[in-house]
User: Fold this.
Amino acid sequence: MSCQPKEGSLNYFYLRKEADVKKTSGQTKSRIVSAAWELFYQHGYENTTIDDITELSGTSKGSFYHYFSSKDNLLGSLSDLFDKKYEELDQSMDEQLNPIDKLLFINRELFLMIENTVSVSLLSKLFASQLGANGERGLLNPDRTYYKLVRRLVIEGKEKGLFRDDLSVNDVTKAYALYERAMMYDWCISAGNYSLCQYSQKMLPLFIDGLRA
Assistant:
């Protein structure tokens, strides 16, 4: 016997309504985040107002303050924008690629997105917000789409014998994430004077070689 509420029942109605509310809520937050970072990139962080963000996102100030206590609070949301990109990449990846090539693919595409849509100053602000005493450290949240995707690819790689036996799934996942953060950090302190995407295409294969079986 199924434990799921029957369609048409009162419980089914409330569960569907709750799911719809959660979906709408997530879409509203996503619109605010996308609009904010588009404006930050086009006009600069300091020159963007909350009114600008709500106008472009088609939301209200009440909705904005429901998710963010201030404009500064938006800085940590860049990881949400990254995760949205990872969700798209997860859907578009060639399933014929081996797990290591998939890791190289998502790195290339994310870093290309950063170069094209996120200024060095904005990425620097993100790192600064994560270092603050009250920072939520969203970049390190293990529930992020990013970590779930990377971990899944590492597990696939371990099952195929592509990674060293003396390294656990957590070891390889953490090493990969550390590499990416180090690359972004160096790009920031170098004032973006090189191509993040192109340089990583040279260095990441060398880095992964140290993790290979």
